[in-house]
Design a protein that fits this description.
This protein has 460 residues and is an alpha+beta fold. Helices cover 27% and strands 27% of the residues. The longest helix has 22 residues. It is globular. The termini are far apart. The structure holds flavin mononucleotide and manganese (II) ion. The site of manganese (II) ion (MN) has 4 residues, from loops.
């Protein structure tokens, strides 16, 4: 049975050191995020369940995705094989299975009964304009094609039945919304709250607008998603979610949203964003309200696994001998390839930039460099790259509107650094090394006292 609470129970039972229940009352204004941040300083990243949150009867769970081991276990993978496993699973999409009812229908609130202020009003960071819902997965239908889309979109509470919604320009939900606006219609959608991590990883798949994420969410979870008809619109919603908000993005309405502490690590100012009206809330009797600690590990790990998998898939279409992909920082990706022919470094750059709108800087290195080691990547750039030959810059390309360095919202420059050896690694100046037979022949113990070896060095 795939749902958030079964996942939490599994963590609680199998790895109790990764789970923390907080019974003492917390103020959702800063205190939940503060406790996550304090544990982060101690290098602890447990799932945190807050049973007693001021101003609401709903318990809050956060930090669910803050461990790579935990997150990849949710899709039946070990941490190292996450991208390959992700790609293998989404290659076999599973259609949702309709059921007559489910736990998410235990409580149904419509019209005047809707009051968003009963939900936990979580304020994450100091400059934030107010409380936000950060773990909402939108489920929407394109008014033109009828196709479904899922993505994460943050919601800022406005009043008892309205929030703002942040739609990145040119992403799929924005595309649906502009289609609806042209028809002068609202865009109806459901917000899924309280999701199994496999669903979340599926919702974050980067791919064609024709790929319906609900199929991938099932594929990643290893079983079809059970769905039930929504109350106020023609849409089927996950029967085992904790809570569903049903509503619509109103055409042509805009509201002030932000400032908000972003995943980039910066607090960006207020902008005009779309307005979401909530028409119904359905939830479990004892629903757990899910939060994602924005801009912290919980958030960053969750978004990078699907992005890395997709970039790997797209680079592989161009350079079959791609070895690994890693996103070490916002808008930045490292790619390692076993270059077999001249020019493949730049093919990899073009493929990576074409694969993901958010990517801004691509660094391509040879396969002998471990891209999980930033120092080695910099060594490759320092010793195998000539800027006038190997750096490609493309101006005025669509990117993220959350990049604090751009001058115009969402329009950015892209850069590729081809740090592969030219023309090819096996033809490049050789690396220095002590002869192998000498290394094999010498035993430190024959030359150095054991007591000295046992001492801890001071490093450098
Ligand atoms: C916690 C979290 C919050 C996010 N918030 C937003 C958001 O507010 N607006 C947005 O456009 N994308 C947001 N994203 C990123 C999108 O969900 C992601 O790019 C998604 O793949 C887009 O879906 P699409 O490819 O179907 O358009 C968020 C991602 C995460 C993990
Ligand atoms: Mn999509």
């Amino acid at each position: 049975m795939t749902d958030l609470r079964s996942f939490i129970d599994k963590v609680r039972q199998e790895t109790p050191e990764d789970f923390l229940t907080i019974t003492k009352e917390v103020d959702p204004r800063f205190e939940i995020t503060a406790l996550v941040a304090k544990l982060e300083q101690e290098k602890r990243f447990p799932v945190m369940l807050f049973e007693n949150v001021k101003g609401t009867r709903f318990p809050v769970v956060t930090n669910v995705h803050a461990s790579r081991r935990r997150l990849t276990a949710a899709i039946g993978s070990d941490p190292r094989a996450a991208q390959a496993n992700y790609l293998r699973r989404i290659a076999r999409p599973l259609p949702p299975r309709e059921v007559s009812t489910g736990p998410v229908k235990e409580v149904i609130l419509k019209g005047n009964q809707v009051d968003l202020r009963t939900l936990p009003q979580i304020v994450h960071h100091e400059a934030d304009a107010g409380p936000y819902i950060t773990a909402g997965i939108t489920l929407a239908k394109d008014p033109l094609s009828g196709r479904l889309n899922c993505s994460f979109n943050r919601l800022m509470f406005i009043d008892k039945n309205h929030t703002s919604i942040h739609l990145t320009v040119a992403k799929h939900l924005w595309e649906f919304y502009t289609n609806a606006e042209k028809l002068n219609q609202p865009l109806k959608l459901a917000i899924i709250l309280g999701a199994h991590p496999a669903w979340s990883l599926g919702a974050l798949n980067i791919g064609s607008i024709d790929e319906e994420e609900v199929y991938l969410m099932g594929a990643l979870a290893g079983e079809p998603m059970e769905v039930v008809p929504a109350e106020t619109m023609d849409l089927k919603v996950p029967a085992r979610a904790e809570m569903i908000l049903e509503g619509e993005i109103l055409p042509f309405e805009r509201v002030d949203e932000g400032p908000f502490g972003e995943f980039t690590g910066y607090s960006l100012g207020s902008r005009k964003r779309e307005l979401f009206q909530v028409n119904a809330i359905t939830h479990r009797k004892d629903a757990i309200f899910q939060d994602i600690t924005v801009g912290h590990i919980d958030h960053l790990l969750l978004s990078t696994i699907p992005m890395e998998a997709n970039i790997f898939r797209c680079v592989k279409a161009m350079v079959p001998s791609v070895k690994a992909v890693r996103i070490p920082a916002p808008f930045t990706v490292y790619v390692s390839i076993e270059k077999k022919t001249e020019g493949q470094g730049k093919n990899a750059i073009l493929a990576a930039l074409g694969a993901d709108m958010y990517m801004k800087h691509v660094i391509v290195v040879d396969h002998d460099i471990d891209i999980f080691n930033d120092q080695r990547v910099q060594w490759g750039v320092g010793t195998r790259c000539q800027a006038d030959r190997d750096v490609t810059i493309i101006s005025n390309v669509g990117g993220s509107d959350l990049d604090p360095s751009d001058l115009k919202d969402g329009v950015t420059a892209k850069m590729g650094i081809d740090a592969t050896a030219k023309p090819r690694l096996d033809l490049f100046t050789p690396r220095h090394r002590v002869p192998k037979d000498v290394m094999d022949r010498l035993d430190l113990k024959d030359y150095v006292p054991a007591s000295w070896l046992a001492q801890k060095g001071t490093g450098r």
